[in-house]
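Collaborator request, handled under Task 6.
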Amino acid sequence: MTVVVAHDEEPVTEVFSRILSETKPPVVVAIPRPNAEFGFVFMTVGQTAYGEADEATSTGDTASIGMLYDAMAARQRRNSLVTVPNDWQPATFRVELAPSTT
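Structure tokens returned to the collaborator:
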């Protein structure tokens, strides 16, 4: 499985576009966080389909990967379908947070 490092403030659209153009899901996204165990928080991203899924959460154009992680963690929702906008057709991904030990 490929590991993609993304900065907390990096837009979700850019991270997911990079995943699609440089590798193939599933991938592990590592987000540097000084307070996290080992210095990173992790999420697994697997592509499900193009288009919007009825049960998916949509992200805005300005949402960052850190915001997505924090929103999922705050809802205590370890996995979710997430629709990410792009210039052609939205893509829906299955996103799962790695368990936190802190």
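The cover message to the collaborator said: "The mean pLDDT is 86. Residues 2-97 form one domain. Please let us know whether this matches your experimental observations."
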